[in-house]
Amino acid sequence: MSGRTKIDSTAGAVLATLMLPPGAKIVAAPRATSQRTILATHGITPPAFLAHVVPALRAAGIPVANVGKLRVVAVEDLDAWLRVQGGELPAAPRRGRAAKAANDAPAEDDEIERILAQHGTRRVAGGRR
User: Fold this and answer.
1) What is the pLDDT of residues 67-94, one digit of tens each?
2) What span, in angstroms and rounded, lies between the C-alpha atoms of 46 and 38?
3) Helix, strand, or coil (residue 5)
4) pTM above 0.90, yes or no
5) What is the pLDDT of residue 1?
6) What sign does the CA torsion over 120, 123, 124, 129 have?
7) 3-class DSSP state for residue 11?
8) CB 27 within 8 A of CB 20
9) How far apart (Å, rounded) are the C-alpha atoms in residues 55 and 120?
10) In the beta sheet, which residues pair with residue 66?
């Protein structure tokens, strides 16, 4: 055994020296997340995070820090809360033009299909025929 490795049998731990090249990068899991990083860390969209997750975390007594416009939460707390929720989150509500377009789309699509049918054609993926 080399002189750089120590084993503490009472604690069940091993202390070792690890030689890394000068350009090596050490990657660590994030300790906190916000609406800027939530998609990358947890796959939750920023609107869903702000509209649903943040208020629910606060209601559950989990601290959410306001840092300027950011809402920052500890990843460990968020992970624990998500486990309790079973990973189910409702979709973020649509606002403005997106909400109007979503509400008008079915009626508009039906009208387009009716007109296309009158001309003996139908809608296909990638365009009209």
Assistant:
1) 999 999 999 999 998 888 876 665 555 5
2) 7
3) coil
4) no
5) 45
6) positive
7) coil
8) no
9) 51
10) 71
